[in-house]
Amino acid sequence: MMTTLKFRNNDEMPILGLGTFRSEPNEVYNSVLSAIKIGYRHIDCAAAYGNEKEVGNAIAEAIKQGLITREDLWVTSKLWNASHGEENVIPALNQTLEDLQLDYLDLYLIHWPVVLKKGTEMPEKASDFIPLSEVPLTNTWKGMEAALEQGLTKHIGVSNFNENQLKEIIASAVHKPEMNQVEMHPFLQQKELKALCSHFDMHLTAYAPLGSLVDENAALRLLENDTIINIAYLRNMSPAQVALAYTMQRGIAVIPKSINEKRLLQNLETINYTLTEEDTALLKDLDKGHRFIDGKFWEVDNGPYTADSIWNA
Ligand code: A2P
User: Out of 169, 199, 216, 255, which could bridge 19 as a Cys pair, Cβ 3.0 to 4.6 Å?
Assistant: First the structure.
């Protein structure tokens, strides 16, 4: 199985990284340090996760212990919605760099195609939002390009962008986005978006690559799916490994989160397995276009965004 994704300048991102969303500050330090110890070389962060200081402490400790050098590690972070707008990008990135104790990122992404007023963490009312007509994505992209040109990040990209939003920024970009990070797993295979990203020579990273483990509806629990369980049994893999391997074999990076050492190792070891064509044909049929992260949290009464406008507009 391929182990890295190659960027336009030949930089290589490990195809499997560690996610840090919903890792509590007290848990994330151990998660990141353990992950680096067992061989993870790609950490996915975001200002919005509220834990970049702890992630930074763990990276600093790993470097201090001589486990890695800065250059060995691929670090991604994301611009929060309240920092859209050309002039706000570099200050936000500088804060992230300070928190992570780094002098550059490998990849910086616009977290959502949604703009919030400065200082807003999660919006509650329409006045917490700014419509895209006032702060266009192309304007924020200019700030991303400036960050790239100043060497604060080696690559720039986006997250949760739909096809039209990608086309909009690509049309006026000097430096085109190199990554779109979106939810992806066997129940949400994003075939059209994947085709468009290949066309624009962009990579994809799958967030929530293990799906939701605790959905009330049993049919939506990815790791309890019969097809996945059967393949896992046949190939001597775990269901999580089957889900991760399938997405990676499509040429897509995965960033499973775990705070448990056994599962961290199990996820990393997925790169040693290859699913057969028969397996991948069965997994392909599991696509049901189902989002666990449905974007409804951006919908408020009389607000400028709806989940439908985010995914489909
Ligand atoms: P934990 O941190 O206790 O390991 P996703 O990355 O798709 O959002 O999924 C993350 C969830 O999946 C977390 O709840 C994590 O729990 C769990 N998880 C991570 N790796 C595995 C695995 N190999 N098998 C089962 N559950 C896993």
Answer: 255
In whole angstroms, what is the distance from residue 51 CA to residue 100 CA? Answer: 9
Residue 191 and residue 195: Cα distance in Å, rounded?
Answer: 6
d(CA 67, CA 37): 7
Q: How far is the CA of 263 from the centre of ligand 1 (A)?
A: 7
Give, as one character, the DSSP assignment of residue 109. E
Q: CB-based contacts of 71: which residues, under 8 Å, 6+ apart?
A: none
Beta strands in 63-202 (DSSP E): 74-79, 107-110, 115-116, 129-130, 156-159, 179-183
Q: Which residue has the tokens 């992950």?
A: 35
Which atom belonging to ligand 1 lies closest to the Cα atom of 260?
Answer: 4
Give, as one character, the DSSP assignment of residue 270.
G
Q: pTM for this one?
A: 0.97
Q: How many CA atoms lie within 13 A of 69 on its CB side?
A: 1
Q: What is the DSSP string of 7-72?
A: -TTS-EEESB-EE-TT--HHHHHHHHHHHHHHT--EEE--GGGT-HHHHHHHHHHHHHTTS--GGG
Q: pLDDT for 42-62, tens place per residue?
A: 999 999 999 999 999 999 999
Asked whether 18 and 42 are in contact (CB, 8 A), the reply is yes
Tell whether ligand 1 has an atom less than 6 A from the beta carbon of residue 82. no
The verdict on the CB of residue 266 being under 6 Å from ligand 1 is yes
Torsion-angle region of 88 (φ positive above 0: left; ψ -120 to 50: alpha; else: beta): alpha
Q: How many separate helices (H) and strands (E) can be counted in the chain?
A: 11, 12
Residues 6+ apart with CB under 8 A from 234: 279
Are 47 and 77 in contact, with CB atoms under 8 Å apart? yes
Q: Give the residue with greater pLDDT, 217 vs 279.
A: 279
